[in-house]
Amino acid sequence: MSKPIQWYPGHMAKAKREVREKLKLIDVVIELVDARIPLSSRNPMIDEIVGDKPRLLLLNKIDMADQTETKRWKKFFEGPGKMALEVDCQSGQGLNKIAPACRELMKEKHDKLKAKGVNPRAIRVLILGIPNVGKSTLINRLAKKNIAVTGDKPGVTKKQQWIKVGDELDLLDTPGILWPKFEDQDVGSRLAATGAIKETLFDFQEVVVFILKYMKDRYPERLKERYKLEEIPDDVIELFDEIGRKRGCLVGGGYIDYDKAAELILRDLRSLKLGGISFETVQDVN
Ligand code: GDP
């Protein structure tokens, strides 16, 4: 697991500058978000930073999200010059749609070049996103199949290399990294719930209370089924207690061992024992 990045104003300014520098070389921006929290896993200044470059949004980790919600998010994000795809970078699902989507985004420009008798070069793409959304996993996947590194191009600093992805794409081998919007407490809780921020930076039990509160309202049946509960108590702490008791997370005197119960619930969530869960929905925005 990579070291958690500490974002201070100076680091944010530097990250923004670095991304802007990379964008100069790029035709299409591939923005990665976590399909479970597509808004909370975006950088708050992304539109301003990317400007009017053609953009492909990848809703990643669909294996862990609620499929119905992911489909709604896909529609939500699509618009003129903007496309969205559902992907699982770990298994590779959906990645074969990336090149055709980039081609579609560049179609008008390429048609114009062709009309002038110019053969368009490969489309240059940058992968962009906040930490832990799957940027390295995606780059490794795309690179493995197409290992040819094309080397330096004019205007590129020595360190940056291009990875050839099929005949159509040249991918910058280092992603653009931006910061999330964590000054909002709910955003922070969603980031922690999905593992985008290490739990150790958070109060472990608080994150689990957040998860239970959300699931109690949105996915009560999943809780009932997993923890063999007949009813879901209104009070979230009572629910926490009930799960702890059912699962034998007890310390002396019959008291609940909250650390143990929290760990168990988080493990169930991460290993999909509670099913695919989205912590943000389009309905909440509208
Ligand atoms: P980066 O910080 O954006 O480069 O993120 P990483 O590529 O390091 O991925 C962060 C974590 O998410 C790693 O543990 C990956 O294995 C995991 N991951 C990436 N893509 C997927 C996916 O589609 N599904 C699941 N379940 N995990 C993923």
TrEMBL record:
Please give the chief subcellular localization of this protein.
Answer: cytoplasm
Lineage, top-rank taxon, reads Bacteria
Q: Cytoplasm among the record's keywords?
A: yes
Spell out the Pfam families in the cross-references: MMR_HSR1
Which sequence ranges are marked TM in the entry?
none
- List the keywords (alphabetical): Cytoplasm, GTP-binding, Hydrolase, Nucleotide-binding, Ribosome biogenesis, RNA-binding
| Its biological purpose | Essential protein that is required for a late step of 50S ribosomal subunit assembly. Has GTPase activity that is stimulated by interaction with the immature 50S ribosome subunit. Binds to the 23S rRNA. Required for the association of ribosomal proteins rplP and rpmA with the large subunit. Required for a late step of 50S ribosomal subunit assembly. Has GTPase activity.
* Family to which this protein belongs: Belongs to the TRAFAC class YlqF/YawG GTPase family. MTG1 subfamily.
Name used for this protein in its record: Ribosome biogenesis GTPase A
Q: What is the lineage of its organism?
A: Bacteria, Bacillati, Bacillota, Bacilli, Bacillales
